[in-house]
Amino acid sequence: MSDVIIAEGVGKTYRLGEQTTAYNLMRERIVQAFKAPFAARPRAAEQFWALKDVSFTVGSAEVVGLIGKNGAGKSTLLKILSRITEPAEGRIDLHGKVSSLLEVGIGFHPELSGRENVYLNGAILGMSRREIRRKFDEIVDFAEIAKFLDTPVKRYSSGMYVRLAFAVAAHLEPDILIVDEVLAVGDSAFQQKCLGKMRDIRSEGRTVIVVSHNMSTVSALCQRVIWLSDGRVKAAGDAQAIIRQYLSEGVENDFVWTPRHGILSAFEYHSVSVESGDPSGPGEGFAANAPIDVVFDFSIHDKFPPGRIEMRLLTDAGDLLLTSTSADPTGQLNHEWKRGRQQFRCRIPADFLMPGRYFVTITEPYGAYDIPRENVLAFSVTEEGSLAARDQRGGKIAPLLQWALTDAGTDIPPRK
Amino acid sequence: MHTIIKPRHGLAQLNLAEVWQARELLGFLAWRDITVRYKQTSIGVLWAFIRPFLTMVIFTVVFGRIAKLPSDHVPYAVLTFTALLPWQFFSTAFADAANAVVGNGYMITKIYFPRLILPLASIAVGIVDFLVSFVILIFMMIGYRMTPTLRMLALPLFFALCLVFTIGLGLWTASLYVKYRDMRHLIPFVTQFGMFVSPVAFSSSIVPAKWRFLYSLNPMVAVIDGFRWSLLGTTRLYLPSIIAGTVMSVVLVVTGVYYFKQTERVFADVM
Q1: Which of B174, B36, B265, B177 is nearest to A107 (CA)?
Q2: Is A90 on the interface with B (CB under 8 A)?
Q3: Which residues in chain A have Cβ-Cβ distances shorter than 8 Å to B3?
């Protein structure tokens, strides 16, 4: 088995604070030039290594998982492998045709029909017109949208849209495929289909690199795993062993998250934290019979379009347990913001979660978009005070539901 | 196929073969822009005819009838329209090309393809519009009973000059726009102000002789004069203007391609 991907000492820097001024203003440069015409450069901003000394090899027909906490450098590595961005140092050799799927449906235009978008998207993904024509029927079958082929995709349901987008991507025939969590789309039947497709790709002798937060997906698909932590390779090797290690020690409890970058927009997080009504405090974890609060401390600096904060609770296998948003109490999708510093407190009721480890993913409102901040918090719920544990109940959640007894009021005469 | 990913140092490699391989994508992107533009309009492609036609009517009335500028012995409508053809190509293709990278930022951060494809696809859209407008000119010339001469064979050369200038300026602006969002205000300025300093609504014969060379540093002067010369045969060709325009355009396009390739590696990071 020969190596098809060889990475040696790959590193990538970003300038800290670069995101606070997403782009330069020409005026600053011009003013600078007049003030100090011979100064080499405006002050060197502080650099931060998103990736440092990353070396690894991937053999042909291997499926390798890339895991690590948010901010560990997974996305940066993926972008370098996909040639979207350039490394600051190091070298990667790729042998074979490379396709990358950081998102499905790139270039889809809402006004164009399903048919037109298949051609457009296929071309963006690097397929030739002939290749798309040859696979066209197969793509449409896979997406199950034959009837809506000539309808503009803006009239598609989100399920149909995603199915079509994935179908095009699934019919790429690269030697090396680079995938980012695109599996987490569509309903579960479609997800199964996608997983099946991924296994086909492997059996066809192609090499796959997949990034996912879903450990059950990773362990089902990958033989080998590369674990990134703080921009470096922390461990690489057998998937099962490393996932076990990752789940047990890799992600410690994270009760407080503070953003690493400066203010992105008029919305600014100061911190997001998890607290328990359990008076003994979070030693090993939170008691199951006390409520758990997720507290969002943030400021609105300026006029800000209506929106919401989303909170997603995930199990340690990476499965999404529930989603709740700050607009929930209003019964609407979004709510207005008021200026100033404020806190949202989202309460997960007592006697609701099963004992186990949980991750919290939140979103950061940013104009019309929400930026997900993945797995920013991690906490455990102990068996202490858990009726479900005492009773050895199965299931994903353990709420104590209401059981109402109504007396029908008819006396039944005692049996003789 | 063997790909090496490593930091680039020094002068960028052009790697134009890669752009040629992606020509189908260029075609698809241009086709998308054209299709989408007319999809939701009720009269669709007719707009491609109406826009240049109305501009010509207004120019004829304002400059020909009201301001009574000399028309070099051809109908003022034809005089303006021969200039509007290359000018409208330049102004829309330049503005679209300049916007192409920033406007498609979401694609740049999600997938790799030769980035040069984006501005070039916008310019391809402009070429299609140009051909549509050219049909109007043919009808106008038939209407005014004007017979083209052999000089018309030189027209593709003047269009090529216009194309080279548009690509050059478009690439420079597109790459600068990624870093300096000030370009958003500069682009409409170029297309609006540029029309008045180029001989679109009038003949370049009204420019005083002593200013003639300075005036010709704008390559669109050579282009527009060339269009009038080859289609109408009235305008006299001023050789220094053609040389200056050609030199300007070639310098712009060569440096533009290099600057674009040099900056494209950080596109995804600053987007």
Answers
A1: B36
A2: yes
A3: 83, 93-94, 98
Strand spans (E) along A60-204: 63-67, 89-95, 98-101, 176-180
Query: Whose structure tokens read 């457009």?
Result: A120
Taking the CA of residue A334 and the nearest CA in chain B, the distance in Å comes to: 24
Whole-structure pTM value: 0.75
- CA A122/CA A165 separation, integer angstroms: 10
Say whether pLDDT at A283 is over 70.
no
pLDDT in tens, A127-136: 999 999 999 9
Nearest to A274 by CA among A260, A261, A263, A290: A290
Which long-range contacts does A165-169 make (Cβ < 8 Å, 24+ apart)? A165/A104, A165/A105, A165/A108, A165/A121, A166/A104, A166/A190, A166/A194, A167/A139, A167/A140, A167/A142, A167/A143, A168/A104, A168/A105, A168/A118, A168/A121, A168/A122, A168/A125, A168/A139, A169/A101, A169/A104, A169/A125
Distance CA(B81)–CA(B201), nearest Å, equals 9
CB neighbours of residue B202 within 10 Å: 22
pLDDT by residue (tens digit) across B17-28?
A: 889 989 999 999
Contact A111 B36 (CB under 8 A): yes
Positive or negative, the Cα torsion across B113, B114, B116, B120?
negative
Instruction: Kindly state the tokens that stand for A284.
Output: 């090993």
* Rounded alpha-carbon distances, angstroms, from residue A145 to A139, B10, B161: 9, 50, 47
**Whole-complex ipTM:** 0.86
User: Dihedral angle at the C-alpha atoms of A246, A251, A252, A257, nearest 10 degrees?
Assistant: 170
State how far the Cα of A64 lies from the Cα of A237, in Å rounded to an integer.
9
Tell me how long chain B is.
271
Phi, psi at residue A323, to the nearest 5°? -130, 135
Plot region of A317 (φ>0 → left; ψ -120 to 50 → alpha; else → beta) = alpha
Element spanning A208, H or E: strand A207-211
Predicted local distance difference test score (pLDDT) of residue A120: 94
A100 and B112 within 8 Å at the Cβ level: the answer is yes
* pLDDT per residue as tens digits for the range A372-409: 777 788 888 888 888 888 888 888 899 999 999 888 77
Number of cross-chain residue pairs from A and B with Cβ atoms under 8 Å apart: 110
The yes-or-no verdict on residue B14 having pLDDT over 70 is yes
Cα–Cα distance measured from residue A306 to residue A338, given in angstroms and rounded to the nearest whole number: 10
Cβ–Cβ < 8 Å for A212, A218: yes
Closest CA to B164 of B252, B36, B232, B48: B252
Place of tokens 């979070």: A282
Residues linked to residue A91 through DSSP beta bridges, in sequence order:
A8
Check: CB of residue A94 under 8 Å from CB of residue B3: yes
In A113-152, the residues whose Cβ lies within 8 Å of chain B are 116, 119-120, 123-126, 128-129, 152
Closest-CA distance, B41 to chain A, in angstroms, reads 12
A73 token code pair: 């450098």
Dihedral of alpha carbons B232, B236, B239, B243, sign: negative
A29, closest residue in chain B (CA to CA): B180
Q: Which positions in chain A touch B175 (Cβ < 8 Å)?
A: none
Residue spans of alpha helices (H) in B40-104: 46-59, 76-103
Element (H, E) at A121: helix A114-124
